[in-house]
Amino acid sequence: MSRTRWTILVAIVAFVAAFAGVLAGRAIGGGHNAGHGSELHALLHDRMQLTTEQMRRLDALEAAYATRRAALQARMRADNARLAQAIAAEQDDGPRVAAAVDASHRTMGDLQKATLAHVFAMRRLLRPDQTPAFDRAVARALTHPAQ
């Protein structure tokens, strides 16, 4: 396969991996700093009447999640760069490519787990009368992302 085709393949693989990670973060999390349009963000900050204490705790959770998410996204970019290097070096689906793909998948999984942990932490801030609306918003985010 020509060098140009490999370059295009590397670009496509890197884009798909990065896109999957972004979708995972946006579909579920939508934290204060990165999801101003997300349904969960709008629900918690605009439509749900949270107490001052709930808002304080929510802001702290969102700040911690934003830091964790940024670190995982940086790791994903590094994984994609290693994948690109492995594809360029092997020019086939060899052991370096497989290891780089596995590393990228682990990072995407870590991002999804961090996002879910964030969602559950936000849910724990809510009173029992507030959780049904939150649960519906989470279900919609998971089944109808990017709407």
Can you offer a commentary on this structure?
- The chain is mostly helical and 147 residues long.
- Helix content is 80%, strand content 0%.
- The protein has 5 helices and no strands.
- The radius of gyration is 18 Å and the shape is elongated.
Descriptors:
mainly alpha, 147 residues, 5 helices
**How much strand?**
under 5%
Principal-axes shape call: elongated
**Euclidean distance between termini CA atoms:** 39 Å
Structural class by SSE content: mainly alpha
Largest sheet: none
Q: Point out poorly predicted stretches.
A: 27-37
Question: What is the alpha-carbon Rg in Å?
Answer: 18 Å
Count of DSSP H/I helices: 5
**What percentage of residues falls in helices of 4 or more residues?**
over 70%
Mean pLDDT across every amino acid position = 82
Order of helices and strands: HHHHH
Number of strands: 0
Outline the secondary-structure elements.
Elements: H1 3-29, H2 39-47, H3 52-90, H4 95-124, H5 131-143
Helix pairs in contact: 1-3, 1-4, 2-5, 3-4
Structure at a glance:
The chain has 147 residues and is mainly alpha-helical.
